[in-house]
Amino acid sequence: MKNLIKFLLFVGLLSAGISALYDYRLKHGGLNLVARTPTEKYTLASFPSIDPKQVGTLDALNRERRALVGSVLPAVVSIKTSKKVPMRRQYGMDPFEFFYRNNRQFRNPDEQAMVQNSLGSGVIVSSEGHVITNNHVVDQVDEIEVQMSDGRTKKARLVGADATVDLAVLKIDEPNVKALKFGDSDAVMAGDFVLAIGNPFGFEETVTDGIISSKGRPNRVDAFGDLLQTNAAINPGNSGGPLINLQGEIVGINTAIISRSGGSQGIGFAIPSNSVRSALESLLKQGRIIRGYLGIQTRNPLQGGQSDQDADGVIVEDVIPDSPAAQAQIQRGDVIRKFDGRDVKSFPELRSLISQVELNKKLEVEVVRNGKPLKVQTEIKEQPVDYLTSNTTPRQGRQPQIPQNPAPQPPRPNPQTPDDEDLQDEAPLAGVEVQDLTPDLARSLNVPSGVRGVVVTNVDDSSAELRKGDVIEEVNQQPVTSVAEYRKVVGSLDPNGTSVLSVCRGRTRSFVVLRAR
User: Active site residue: 78, 121, 239, 282, which one?
Assistant: First the structure.
């Protein structure tokens, strides 16, 4: 016991000595535990580099943009989805590697599953809590959550969706929420200022600005011809978010980007708001999108030739039997100039007008036939379910039936004679010279078998839409299989009218529209 007391006393004295030595070294600077740095003198700028009055307009723009963004942000939401994806056992993999990759017990490895999470954007469009987003954001998922601008998360149910227009309608149980109004996308023009708001890469409430880069390209037959193009930065996760105009209205729903890197390269696309609103109301009222159709097919203009837009109308390539167009006696080769009193310049524009028309409503269609205007009455009907599968794509032109092994025909002499010069100078085709299409010439021009017509051998500037080597098959719906037929048809044309030519250029068939000089 005495030894223990002596030991403790020794330890106490030793500790007191070490502590006293530590304090002494600190007071006399012998132990420098804290690095000392010299004090730096500094003077910060007191005035801005420019007088605020000199940039008053920009300052006002800042305030207005803040007000615009602040007014629409509460209606923009982030969408989070999850989906269970079954995984089959990967035979041949080391079982321990398989175990650690899946991070779960190694029982019944044939029934593994993982959860895929995805992000998207949406916008509230009704005070009852209806949310618009893209179909591809919520397609085939097990669970959908909507995160509000204030951070609250709500479960959402899918009301309806349509893959064709890539739209979906969700519903959250949150009454009296902030909703945005639809703007008129038909009134949008290239150059208009727009904002894109969404959840790119999980960064919710991201705002980017830009302009409408283009709209309604008439020469495209893919979906991009119907979309609004913008240079506002759109990235993965922006899908389903709104494109906003200066009034805080929805003019589009962001849906796609064109990019080599996977990120924004200034080429983004949005579904026009008029199409979105029509789809929304159809989904809410009918449970599905009701599509009206006219029942015509058209084809692309020839490369370098006159487009539908230049022709101020849509050229009818074919008419679907028993369709509204057929009942209105619209014919192949007609040029549709007006639909329900509105001018038509391209097929996407016509398609958009048809989609906005009330079904079974009688309306007027103005066409040009054989160079003369004609008005017909029609009723837009609901598009049949099998419409896209029961009808072929726009046909590649008139294909006469020919024998499997046609007998060889002797070459014809060049029929180009001075009679061609008898055509009046003011006729629409006065500057076009032609010759018969022989088998040898058809092979050299690489035209499809079965093509019948006359070959353009010379053309002046008044008919610049045509080129040497074009094969004219029809003029105003009248076949021309020889120079004699061609001269006869052209001689009967109205000098002040418009002529529609069915033309084969290489392997491509299309229409060319010519006006009188």
Answer: 239
Count structural domains, the chain.
4
Nearest to 207 by CA among 185, 238, 249, 247: 238
Query: What CATH number does the domain containing 126 carry?
Result: 2.40.10.10
- Domain extent, residue 380, equals 304-390
How many other C-beta atoms can be found within 10 angstroms of the C-beta atom of residue 379?
A: 15
28 flagged as catalytic? no
Phi and psi for 286 in degrees, rounded to 5?
Answer: -110, -15
Which of 254, 285, 316 finishes a domain?
A: 285
Assigned domain for 10 exists: no
Catalytic-role residue among 78, 166, 346, 463: 166
66-100 tens-digit pLDDT:
999 999 999 999 999 988 766 555 444 433 333 33
166 included as an active-site residue: yes
Helix (H) or strand (E) holding 254: strand 250-257
The partner residues of 342 in beta bridges, in order of sequence, read: 339
- The pLDDT assigned to 85 comes to 65
Q: Which residue in the list 78, 121, 130, 136 is annotated as catalytic?
A: 136
> What pLDDT, in 10s, does the model give residues 340-367?
988 888 777 788 788 778 888 889 999 9
Question: CA-CA distance, 109 to 491, in Å (whole number)?
Answer: 81
Largest Cα span, the chain: 143
Query: Does residue 336 lie within any of the structural domains?
Result: yes
**Whether 77 contacts 122, CB under 8 Å:** yes
pLDDT tens digits for range 239-257: 999 999 999 999 999 998 8
pTM for the full model?
Answer: 0.61
Catalytic (active site) residue 460: no
